[in-house]
Each structure stands twice: as C-alpha cells, then as structure tokens.
Design goal:
With about 150 residues, the chain is mostly helical. It has a single domain, classed as Methane Monooxygenase Hydroxylase, Chain G, domain 1, CATH 1.20.58. It contains four helices and no strands. The radius of gyration is 25 Å and the shape is rod-shaped.
Length: about 150
C-alpha cells in the first residue's frame, strides 16, 4: 500500500527474523574426539592382562592419559578461547577421570593379588573394567546427546 502524499512513513520498531541453521557436524566431532576415544580404549586394554602383570596394567593407562592430554591441548589451540566449560572440556575431563579409575582398579586388583586373594582380584578386574566402560559410554552419550538437542 502506498501512503498518501504528505504522510511520512513510520520506521519499523521491531523486526523479527527466524532462521533454522543446521550442519552435519559428525565429521568435525570425530576429528576432534577420535584421538581422545582411542586413548581411552588403549587404556581399557589394560584389563586384558592378569592383575599381577604390572607393566601392561599401568603402562597402557598412563600412555592413554598422556595421549588424551595431548589431544586436549591440540584441540584447545584450534578452538577459540572460552571462559565457559564446553563440551570439549567436559568430554576430555570425563576421559581423564575414567583413565584415573582404570589405574585405581588396577592398583586395587594388584593389592588384592598380593594379599593372597587371587580370585577376588580377578573378579574385581572383570567387574571394574565392565563398570568403567559402561559408565563412560553412557555419560558420553548423555553429554553428546544433550549438546545435539540444544
């Protein structure tokens, strides 16, 4: 509609624009977190040897911990600075804690073995390994799922 001569046009006081933005970020997600997940699974391999085989039981998780830390520092250098605790920080912290739990279970199994409780040591090894894996996967799914839905 064209205004009559001599009347002024009123400027818009409010403009609302709605846009839905989507991107396929699976490739980016895998690029960022693949190293971290491999580091965790390398640490999980330490449950395969018997609890009294200390070299593999402690060497693999420590190597996985250093790999996860290296992955975090490389990713942090690529992403912009943020004062908030991001998904990257959350998943890396979860991985550090899970690897610490792997080391803790290995130490408990070794302690049980040297106390003469070989069967308890083997049972703790089996239950501890499964519990850490299940909790780690579930918590990862919760954090990643909530990030996808937001």
């Amino acid at each position: 509609m064209i205004p009559a001569r001599g009347t002024a046009l009123k400027p818009f006081q409010l403009l609302i624009i709605e846009m839905n933005l989507e991107r396929d970020a699976l490739g980016l997600f895998m690029k960022i977190f693949l190293g971290m997940y491999i580091a965790f699974f390398v640490a999980m391999i330490s449950f395969a040897p018997r609890p009294w085989e200390h070299d593999a039981r402690f060497g693999l998780p420590v190597g996985g911990l250093f790999a996860a830390m290296g992955n975090k520092y490389i990713i942090d250098s690529l992403l912009p600075e943020s004062s908030t605790f991001t998904l990257v920080d959350t998943l890396h912290s979860l991985t550090f804690f899970a690897i610490f739990c792997i080391l803790l279970v290995s130490a408990i199994c070794l302690r049980l073995y040297y106390s003469g409780k070989k069967e308890q040591s083997l049972r703790m090894n089996k239950i501890g390994g499964r519990a850490i894996l299940i909790v780690y996967v579930l918590v990862n799914l919760i954090f990643v799922g909530s990030a996808v839905l937001n």
